[in-house]
Amino acid sequence: MVFPGQGSQAVGMQADLAASYPVVQQTYEQASEILNYDLWALVQGGPADKLAETVVTQPAMLTAGIAAYRAWRAAGGPVPLQFAGHSLGEYSALVAAESVSFEDAMAVVIRRAELMQGAVPAGVGAMAAIIGLDDAGVIAACDEASSIGIAEPVNFNSPGQVVIAGHKEAVDNAIAHCKAAGARLAMPLPVSVPSHSSLMIGAGEALTEALAAADFCTPAIRVLAATDGKAYGDGDDIRARLSRQVYSPVHWVTTVTAMIDGGATAFVECGPGKVLAGLCRRINKSVPVLAVDTNEGLQKALTA
Predict the structure, then answer these.
(1) Which residues contact 210 (CB under 8 A, 6 or more apart)?
(2) How large is the angle between the packed helices 54-74 and 22-35, nearest 10 degrees?
(3) Relative orientation angle of helices 135-145 and 168-180, to the nearest 10 degrees
(4) Which of 73, 78, 91, 191 lies 20 to 30 Å (CA to CA) from residue 152?
(5) Catalytic residues
(6) Residue 119: which of 57, 196, 174, 9 has the closest Cα?
(7) pTM summary value
(8) CA 12 from chain center: how many Å?
(9) Cα–Cα dist 9/271, whole Å
(10) Is the dihedral of CA 259, 263, 266, 272 positive or negative?
(11) What is d(CA 188, CA 31) in angstroms, rounded to the nearest whole number?
(12) DSSP symbols for 142-209
């Protein structure tokens, strides 16, 4: 089972699921009490630009992942063999694996979002998606741009799909080099926070205080860290790795491959959208992929 991160949010998400499973709205109510605002009303009514703000998106996506998982379990879906999450999605995975309470995870995520939002002034950072160029080509393009500023590959999402991040000028330069090297598509993403780049080191280090205050323990079910595809250990290991995760690249190809090597015979994405389902298919077409993003999707996943 895999959980999506920032970028999969959408106004109106999970309304269909909530209509069939009360636990969905109950999860949002639980989050709203912690956040001191009505998260469900914001998610359902927007506006989209407000939902897209990092300090709103991150708590919303943690909530959405757990809401979908609780609906899955309420419908009789089995506990999976393994969990993983893409970036922020790891917090949902750790909650589902009983490594940390929803409340403690939310407290960390709220602080994580604040630190990431404040780490780089607006307009200074950027991210871009590179499609149709191999990893080596993207790395070379970033190296070419390094004389201007920081530009780094930060998400190795699937073969031929890499996200880069760093200083805006350097990222723009890297985009040009990627296009020259034959990338099918190289486009800026509508985000100002250069997630998982070395510009986030200060934010990751500052997060240690919030992580220390949270009660983490060894997951009851195996959870793979998306930075290296290796299983999380005890609470101290989790805290240290979640701190580094803020400024470390996401190796999703490595993580999905490790899950298959660990015995995964199907993937179920829990949360809004089908981003990870699409990536998993591109990584390994032989493993079935399902998505719990609507009631129909949930029923199909249960049947499968």
Answers:
(1) 107, 108, 111, 112
(2) 150
(3) 130
(4) 91
(5) 87, 196
(6) 196
(7) 0.96
(8) 19
(9) 9
(10) negative
(11) 32
(12) HHHHTTTS-EEEEEEEETTEEEEEEEHHHHHHHHHHHHHTT-SEEEE-S-SS-TTSGGGHHHHHHTHH
Cis omega before residue 47 (within 30°)?
A: yes
Task: Evaluate if residue 192 carries a pLDDT over 80.
Answer: no
Q: Report the alpha-carbon distance of residue 253 to residue 264 in Å, rounded.
A: 14
How does the average pLDDT of the chain come out, rounded?
Answer: 96
Q: Are strands 125-131 and 161-167 parallel, antiparallel or unpaired?
A: antiparallel
Instruction: Find out whether 172 and 102 touch, Cβ atoms under 8 Å.
Output: no
Mean pLDDT, residues 59-83 taken together: 97
Q: Rounded CA gap, 239 and 246, in Å?
A: 12
> Which is nearest to 58 in space by CA: 90, 97, 99?
90
Amino acid at 95: V
Angle at 238 between CA 235 and CA 239, to 5 degrees: 85
Under 8 Å between Cβ of 276 and 269: yes
Q: Residue 251 pairs with which residues in a beta bridge?
A: 156
The amino acid that residue 244 corresponds to is R
pLDDT digits (tens, 9 = 90+) for 169-181: 999 999 999 999 9
Structure tokens at 7: 């970028």
